[in-house]
Amino acid sequence: MATEDSSSLSDIEGIENHDQNVLQKHVMFFDRNKDGIIYPSETFQGFRAIGCGYLLSSFAAIFINVGLSRKTRPGKSFSLHFPIEVKNIHLSKHGSDSSVYDKQGRFVPSKFEEIFVKHAKTHPNALTSDELNEFLKSNREPKDYAGWLAGFSEWKILYLLCKDEHGLLKKDVVRAAYDGSLFEQMEKDKESKKKAVTSDV
């Protein structure tokens, strides 16, 4: 790890205090050593921890860290380590999104509810694959190709990993994804399954 990118103790405390915004909580799972900085290796480890394969985890690590590093490090020089500073994650908010996070990274309940009011037509508390596509299209801003790609990647990975046996992405799952608690639960579930397999051998 590059020492020049290490956060001070005050920075870390700022991330962990009660004023921490929800967007920070969303990404903190991927800060595997809890130092306030997320490196590509940690993004990779985080995706592996929630059950993603090597290829998807590698893609995510490159795509996310290369895309977000500079945005979260204002005034700092370019780094080939592509660190993401958790305290500044709100600066990386892309266009063509749902606006469930505001510009400070805070959760906006009305925008979250709007997703399901407008697009959950088959089931009031879940999205089908087609409804998810409709939702993504409705968020697109003209010529914001980077935002389209970011939104598509985020939601499609979530759907791929978390849809139920009926192909539904449930509201409570989406809510848990926004505050990061979903990732912690997915890691626990994966560990439990691994232990169960080991005990059966």
TrEMBL record:
Keywords: Membrane, Transmembrane, Transmembrane helix. The chain crosses the membrane at residues 47-68. Pfam families: Caleosin. GO terms for molecular function: calcium ion binding; monooxygenase activity. PANTHER family: INACTIVE PEROXYGENASE-LIKE PROTEIN-RELATED, PEROXYGENASE 3-RELATED. Belongs to the caleosin family. This is Peroxygenase 4. It comes from Fraxinus pennsylvanica.
